[in-house]
Each structure stands twice: as C-alpha cells, then as structure tokens.
C-alpha cells in the first residue's frame, strides 16, 4: 500500500467518527461512500488528502489530533451526555474539546488522570486488553493493610466469578485509622479496585488515578487540563507498538492469559468505571 493510503476503517477511527469495530459495521451497512461511490469493503484503501469520504452523506474531514490530560474531579461522570448526572467532564472543559473521546472511564466518585483525544487508533490500542497498559491509582481505605490482604490483592482476587490479574502494591502507609497505598493494574474491569478492596473486608474512601502508561498526573489541580507534550505523545505511541507489547508479555506471562483475554472485550474496557 502506498504511503499516503490507509484503510477506510482506520481512517474513520483515526478521525473520531467511531471505533474500528463500529467503522466496520458502518461500511458493511452501506453507510459510507468514497468519492460518491458506496463502499462495501472496510479495508478499502483511501487517500485522506484527495478522497472525499462521507458517512450518511456527511463529509468526514481529516482532523489534526488533539491530546488532553485532564484531572477529573469527583462528582462528574466520564461521558458526553447523561440526563441523570449533574455534571459531565465535558461541562468542565472548553467547548472546543467536545469532539474528543475519553480513553477509558473513571466513575463519579473517582478522580484523577483522564486522557481525551480524537486519535481513534491510539484510543483503540490504549483501551484494548491485549496491549496491557499499566494504570496506577492512589488508594485510601479503611483499616489496616495486613500482609495477607496485600498478598491477596497482588496475587489476584476472584471478582464476579473471574480472577483479577496480578497487581503491584507500593508505598503502603498508615493515615490515621486508614491506610494509603498505590496499586498498579493493567486490566480495566468495572469498579475493579473497589471490589478488590471490598473482598478483603475493607472500603475504599478515596481513589485517584495518578498514572496511565507513561503519563503522570503530577501537580495538575482537580478540574484543570493541559495538552500532552510531543515527548508524551511519542511515548504513548511506543508503548502500544507490537515490539513493546511482546516484551511486556514475555516479562509477565499473566498478561497473555487466555482467560483474561476472552473476558475483557473492547466494549467492556471502554465502559469501565474504576
């Protein structure tokens, strides 16, 4: 394939129309045309510089990518619209960012690092379970983190009928009657950390995502955002490369568990609330 050509399915995903899977469905439903001709093959090569690509007769313009790191505060949901929610993350962001898509989700009571972008290809890779991207959280829970509790969390706990992948706990310390620690996971199951802590008889009282892959929340204040640096964007692109993925799986065999791969679908990961 020539350098300027990309698959139609990839073009739609990269330009924020939808996921690759949904793009496949759009093409198969005969809702996509290239230069006025209906297309029936998702892998059709297109040239974004020359071809006129439409979905439901609306032109899809090749967009410049935007990458925003947002410190999501508690009390808002990670969605564009929710008639049951008082606030969404988009209510706290400038209107120019309403076309962006959250890379994963944080539930209403969880705060911290949330990446938003219109780079559909990168979003797909960062949220798909086979790429195993580490996410680190600061956890505050009731009671004491006993050695047996720590071992259970790190080894993996059966949550809703399925064992979680091994986790890494660091920097555990007492904070009054509670305990604080960081936990690193590479899964993204719904309310996973809260359910893991509940399994050992404790309750999460504070949960904040402080890292995702190479990205760090740092001292960014709650409710504030910043654009990613070129170096951060390049680092994200590197960690989702086939070589890096193979290296992570070779170093940690649990990352290529067939059971985990079957259970975590793209839909599940994208709708995760931790």
Structure description:
The structure is a single chain. With 274 residues, this protein is an alpha+beta fold. α1 packs across α3. It folds into two domains: 6-59, Structural Genomics Hypothetical 15.5 Kd Protein In mrcA-pckA Intergenic Region, Chain A, CATH 3.10.290; 64-274, Pseudouridine synthase, CATH 3.30.2350.10. 26% of the residues lie in helices and 26% in strands. 32% of the residues are buried. It has nine helices and 17 strands. It is elongated. β11 and β12 (162-163) form a beta hairpin. The strands form four sheets. Strands 7, 8, 9, 10, 13, 14, 15, 16 and 17 form a nine-stranded mixed β-sheet that branches. Strands 3-2-5-6 form a four-stranded antiparallel β-sheet. The longest helix is centred in the last third of the chain and has 10 residues, at 230-239.
Topology:
Blueprint lengths: L5 E2 H7 L5 H9 L3 E3 L2 E2 L6 E2 L6 E3 L2 E2 L7 E6 L28 E2 L8 E7 L2 H8 L7 E8 L4 H9 L2 E2 L2 E2 L4 E8 L2 E8 L6 H8 L4 E9 L2 E2 L8 E3 L2 H10 L2 H10 L6 H6 L2 H5 L4
Helix pairs in contact: 1-2, 1-3
Which features would summarize this protein structure in a list?
single chain, 274 residues, alpha+beta, Structural Genomics Hypothetical 15.5 Kd Protein In mrcA-pckA Intergenic Region, Chain A, Pseudouridine synthase, 2 domains, 9-stranded mixed beta sheet, 4-stranded antiparallel beta sheet
- Give the number of DSSP strands: 17
Sheet bearing the most strands, described?
A: 9 strands, mixed
CATH homologous superfamily placement of the largest domain = Pseudouridine synthase
Q: If you average the pLDDT, what whole number results? A: 86
Give the overall shape: elongated
- CATH architect. name of the largest domain: 2-Layer Sandwich
Q: Which structural category do the helix and sheet elements fall into?
A: alpha+beta
Name the helix and strand elements from N-terminus to C-terminus, one letter apiece.
Answer: EHHEEEEEEEEHEHEEEEHEEEHHHH
The domain tally reads: 2
Strand content: 25-35%
Whole-Å distance between the termini? 41 Å
Low-confidence stretches: 257-271
CATH class wording of the largest domain: Alpha Beta
The helicity comes to 25-40%
So what's the oligomer here? Answer: single chain
CATH topology of the largest domain: Pseudouridine synthase
- Rg, nearest Å: 20 Å
Number of helices: 9
